[in-house]
Every structure is written in structure tokens, then in C-alpha cells.
Automatic annotation (TrEMBL):
Organism: Neotabrizicola shimadae
Record protein name field: Peptidase inhibitor I78 family protein
Keyword Signal: yes
UniProt keyword annotations, A-Z: Signal
UniProt keyword Signal present: yes
Transmembrane region(s): none
Annotated signal peptide: 1-19
Length: 98
């Protein structure tokens, strides 16, 4: 029994289309991991406990976000942005990427 040519072509194109969806080796969904310290927070931890002016006086290449107590924080994660959380007295309580 012979299959009609259009049916064979349709089957081959379907297989080729599915093969194009293959992610490849190590490309499974969710495998992307951003660099651990893309914003340089690890090198600035000595500023914790210092006034915010100690951070703002530095010439930093990355964007800086200052979070004050009770302030609403957006949830857009930017791996290269330095987020500085300050306490009620204006001292740096936490430095992290995001």
C-alpha cells in the first residue's frame, strides 16, 4: 500500500518542526542562573551600618535603588542593580543585587 505524497510530506514537515523545538544539551527550561554578584554588592558589604551618604558618595557604574522603611518596592528583578535597604536612622542595613 502506498501513502499519498501529501500525507508523507505533512508527516515529515511535522517531525522537522518538532525537531526545531529541541533546546539542546543543557538547555532545559529554568536552567538560566544569573551571576551571583552582578551588581558588586559583595565588595560593598563593609558599608553596612554606615550612613547612606557613604554609598551615594561612591562613583558606581551600576544603577542603585534605595529602599527606606515602609517604602513600597517594585518586583522587577535587575541583576545588575544594587539595592540598598536603610533603617529608620538612614544607615545601610542591607546591600544586595536586584
Amino acid at each position: 500500500m502506498r501513502l499519498p505524497l501529501p500525507s508523507v510530506l505533512c508527516a515529515l514537515l511535522s517531525v522537522a518542526g518538532l525537531a526545531a523545538c529541541e533546546t539542546g544539551v543543557g538547555g532545559t527550561k529554568g536552567s538560566y542562573r544569573p551571576p551571583q554578584d552582578a551588581c558588586g554588592a559583595a565588595g560593598l558589604q563593609m558599608l553596612i551600618g554606615q550612613p547612606l551618604s557613604a554609598l551615594t558618595s561612591l562613583s558606581l557604574d551600576q544603577p542603585v535603588r534605595v529602599l527606606k522603611p515602609g517604602q513600597v518596592m517594585t518586583l522587577e528583578y535587575q541583576e545588575d542593580r544594587l539595592s540598598a535597604t536603610v533603617d529608620g536612622s538612614g544607615r545601610i542595613a542591607r546591600l544586595a543585587c536586584g
